[in-house]
């Protein structure tokens, strides 16, 4: 569930950057002679993560909210094709990706 949908994948990457930045800063405490260098590298990594979070927030505002046909939960669709954030079903706004309707029977 953590990596389902484009928005969640980018958010997970940004969260990993935060942990990486804090880890790099911690290495600076282990090697005191390089403390300033590691602190600046860690700070740049955390700032990059903040930038990614801001960017994904702007994308999230522009995404289309839809109801998943399989789990009936509300999710956001980024682009023409995306996965449901809850059940990982493939969702699409493109009519050519729509499943074929069953033939109607005439009684």
TrEMBL record:
NCBIfam families: PRK02935.1. This is Zinc-ribbon containing domain-containing protein. It holds the Pfam family DUF2614. The chain crosses the membrane at residues 12-31, 37-56. Keywords: Cell membrane, Membrane, Transmembrane, Transmembrane helix.
